[in-house]
Specification:
The complex is a heterodimer of chains A (about 350) and B (about 350). Chain A is α/β, with parallel strands linked by helices and about 350 residues long. Chain A has 14 helices and 12 strands. In chain A, helix 4 packs across helix 5, helix 5 crosses helix 7 and helix 11 packs parallel to helix 13. The chains are: A alpha/beta (about 350), B alpha/beta (about 350). Bound molecules: adenosine-5'-triphosphate, adenosine-5'-diphosphate, iron/sulfur cluster (2 copies) and magnesium ion (2 copies).
């Protein structure tokens, strides 16, 4: 039942990525050893609650965090070059060129005092070395691609003359303007209405088919993950706690945190009044991480000594060897609970039957 | 048998237009433009709709935190429009608000105990230091915080904890009615369920009546008895939550439902969505006729001429307190379409919903 995994070449390979900040309360270990490969044409969703390290782990790749107080170690190979070891000067040729960005609030990514055309052409002229008129032609093309009507007439308009959804389309156009190998979208639809969000997701899926770039999509919304991802990494307290293909993650989640999240969601179309199965407690502060497994104070599966004293390794689980389904936990969620979580999201049993055929 | 605690009739809230007038006359912002609904005692009405459609303004004007332009709001049999200062103060004891942003709604320089205590002082409740402190501790405990956290400052709490403080403050006056304006939108996923459970528990225990404003349709459906869908200052559909969610009658409600992301990748791949064209028009200049017509996939000739009223639609069996209504010209007599457009997207509405709802 699982969809084909994009089998394209690995464009970005991250190993042992660690990010910490020196703070008044001591060292904050914000990203604690991330390993992953991103393939051409693949959408990798990073999901987790606020503070789990989603933004920092991606911003650190091109040193978009303040250093110091920040400190980044590990490797991030983009086309054979290690971004972490790169000089600031070389990174300038990566940001906005080989890696494109789309952030949550379009107003912070757009300069309110410049027309959008100029903001689009600037990067292209700088990175691609093309003429103003070629850049303008390309800008019109891009605006059309992202669904801005009468694109050629809008180049000289200012950001405030666009609606929130249209502004986010402009930001996506800028993110794509230099044909990046990787597009990083950080909560790109969080500030938008659901109707607009659906359009943007559709748009990114379609552009990806067309242009083949890899996408890292950061969100806290599991519904959005289901609609956009090929592969999912669930983050908690700076670590990957579960990673799997999107179908497998939702059909057969194995980590207590993932299962807890799925079970806590209210379900559209289920009309019982049962109490929601909330995860108790709060996520930890990065300056004050619990010993052992970072999730242990909230975990319903906590079993023995080990959970509170030893850091669990990231290990392969699931039936298919090589499916790349990994969890960071000593214990897996029991079969019947996994089933409950898989159907908790939305799919009633009959509905599951259908797609098995 | 109907026993509304709150009844809203033809409420309008217009704001004077900001900025410079283009070519003479300035139109006001018609944030709320003629809405009517009621909420039964002890029940929850969920209010949904896109950003800027007038949800918060509706809540604020019911509580008289924003002055309505016209219309009446009747609370427990009393017309609030006729209240003098003193009576209005008495009403404020019975109705309170929980805001979206637990950060912005608390003064960073005051302890949370003071924030809660202030609400008590305004209404001369639990006077005397000891009585006040006891009550504050009681309220904190009631919302799941440690009773002696009253001496701490807002920045020492997480978002979810701050929202609990906001709820404790709203409860301080022992209200009957709460406007909850996006109470979970700023919270972490793992904390949202905690707060929804708390609100449900408090409602049961204290017989509270809620107006629950949110954009998360699954959450709204979970907590509400009835759901009202707003578009550009108007309610376009209202009914029992089951009817609105499983048998939506207004094209806008259908579009909204078809856009809700569901945590099921298989369903997400299979469903098709109702694409809404264009943007929400300005509330200073709503379209003639039906306000949704500039984006409606089923628009037809009459929609530009006639401004549809909310009329009874659908079956509406499982209803709590009243029927199921929608404001769309496709519904002439009860549940009877008058004219159907041949718009190609019409069938996609069905397709979109099938993906969203397992129980259909
Ligand atoms: N004080 C004000 N002066 C002028 N216009 C206002 C004022 N308050 C609100 N509006 C306008 O009234 C309309 C409705 O706003 P409201 O805040 O009620 O929307 P909402 O449905 O709560 O949106 P959101 O989902 O973004 O919270 C918007 O167009 C808004 O810009
Ligand atoms: N400049 C900084 N100094 C200290 N801590 C920081 C800094 N930037 C981010 N952090 C911390 O790093 C953690 C992870 O942040 P972030 O990646 O933004 O989380 P997410 O995107 O998952 O919500 C948070 O605890 C945040 O407070
Ligand atoms: S290692 Fe132990 S505490 Fe951590 S998630 Fe697994 S079972 Fe829970
Ligand atoms: S009245 Fe016309 S434009 Fe309005 S919702 Fe109905 S079909 Fe659409
Ligand atoms: Mg972030
Ligand atoms: Mg609002």
């Amino acid at each position: 039942m699982s969809i084909d995994r994009p089998s394209g070449d690995v464009v970005l390979s991250v190993r042992d990525l660690e990010v910490s900040f020196a703070t008044r309360r001591g060292r904050a270990d914000v990203v604690r050893g991330l390993d992953y490969d991103l393939r051409r044409g693949e959408t990798l969703a990073l999901v987790g609650e606020s503070g789990s390290g989603k933004s920092v782990s991606t911003m650190a790749l091109t040193k978009l965090i303040p250093i110091p107080p920040g400190r980044v170690t590990g490797t991030a190979m983009l086309d054979g070059q290690d971004l972490i070891a790169m000089s600031e000067r070389d990174l300038l040729a990566v940001r906005g060129r080989r890696i494109g960005f789309v952030f949550q609030d379009p107003m912070t990514s757009l300069n309110p005092v410049h027309p959008i055309g100029r903001q689009l052409t600037e990067g292209m002229r700088h990175h691609l070395g093309i003429s103003e008129s070629d850049a303008r032609d390309r800008a019109v093309d891009l605006l059309r691609k992202v669904g801005i009507p009468a694109a050629e007439k809008r180049l000289d308009d200012y950001p405030h003359q666009f609606s929130g959804g249209m502004r986010q389309r402009v930001v996506i156009a800028i993110g794509l303007s230099c044909d990046p190998q990787v597009l990083i979208a950080d909560e790109a639809t969080t500030a938008l209405d659901v109707t607009t969000q659906a359009q943007i997701i559709e748009l990114v899926n379609q552009l990806q088919d067309e242009l083949g770039m890899a996408v890292i999509w950061i969100t806290h919304d599991l519904g959005v993950v289901a609609g956009i991802a090929d592969r999912v990494m669930v983050m908690y307290a700076g670590e990957i706690v579960e990673e799997a293909d999107v179908d497998e993650l939702f059909a057969d989640p194995r980590h207590p945190y993932t299962v807890g999240l799925l079970k806590s969601l209210p379900v559209l179309g289920a009309f019982d009044r049962d109490e929601l199965a909330a995860i108790p407690g709060l996520p930890p502060a990065p300056t004050d991480l619990p010993a052992g497994c970072a999730f242990h104070p909230r975990c319903a599966y906590r079993d023995d000594e080990r959970c509170v004293s030893e850091r669990p390794p990231l290990r392969e689980v699931g039936g298919d060897a090589g499916s790349g389904h990994r969890i960071r936990s000593f214990y897996e969620v029991a079969e019947d609970d996994r089933r409950a979580a898989a159907t908790a999201g939305i799919a009633a049993p009959e509905h599951r039957e259908e797609d098995a055929s | 048998m109907s026993d509304p605690l709150l009844q809203v009739d033809d409420l309008h809230v217009h704001f004077p237009a900001g900025g410079r007038a283009v070519g003479g006359k300035r139109n006001p912002v018609r944030a709320v433009d003629g809405i009517s609904f009621s909420i039964e005692r002890g029940r929850t009405l969920g209010l949904v709709g896109e950003s800027g459609c007038g949800k918060s303004t509706t809540g604020l004007s019911i509580l008289r935190l924003v002055e309505p332009t016209s219309g009446t709001v009747t609370f427990d049999g009393t017309d609030l429009g006729n209240l003098g200062r003193k009576d209005l103060r008495r009403f404020r004891r019975r109705a309170a608000m929980i805001f979206q942003d637990p950060y912005a709604s608390l003064d960073p320089r005051r302890t949370v105990g003071d924030a809660i205590g202030e609400a008590l002082d305004i209404h001369d409740l639990h006077q005397g230091r000891q009585a006040r402190a006891t009550r504050v501790a009681e309220l904190l405990e009631r919302v799941g915080l440690h009773p002696d956290t009253g001496s701490r400052y807002p920045h020492e709490f997480s978002g979810g904890q701050r929202q609990r403080v906001g709820i404790a403050r709203a409860l301080a006056v022992e209200p009957d009615f709460l406007v909850c304006d996006e109470p979970i939108a700023a919270l972490d996923v793992s904390i949202q369920a905690q707060v929804l459970n708390l609100l449900a528990e408090l409602q049961d225990e204290l017989q509270l009546t809620y107006l629950f404003i949110a954009h998360d349709l699954a959450a709204v459906q979970h907590v509400s008895d009835r759901i009202a869908v707003m578009y550009l200052g108007r309610i376009v559909e209202e009914g029992d939550r089951r009817d609105v969610i499983t048998d939506p009658q207004h094209p806008y409600t259908r579009a909204l439902l078809s856009a809700v992301p569901v945590p099921d990748p298989v369903a997400e791949r299979q469903r098709s969505r109702v694409e809404l064209v264009g943007d929400v028009p300005s509330p200073m200049n709503p379209p003639s006729g039906c306000r949704f017509r500039t984006r409606c996939p089923r628009v037809f000739e009459a929609c530009g001429r006639i401004d549809p009223d909310l009329i009874p639609v659908g079956g509406g069996e499982g209803s709590v307190g009243g029927g199921h209504t929608a404001a769309c010209l496709l519904h002439g007599e009860v549940g009877q379409p008058v004219e159907r457009s041949e718009h190609p997207d019409a069938n996609e509405i069905e397709a979109g919903l099938d993906g969203a709802l397992p129980n259909r």
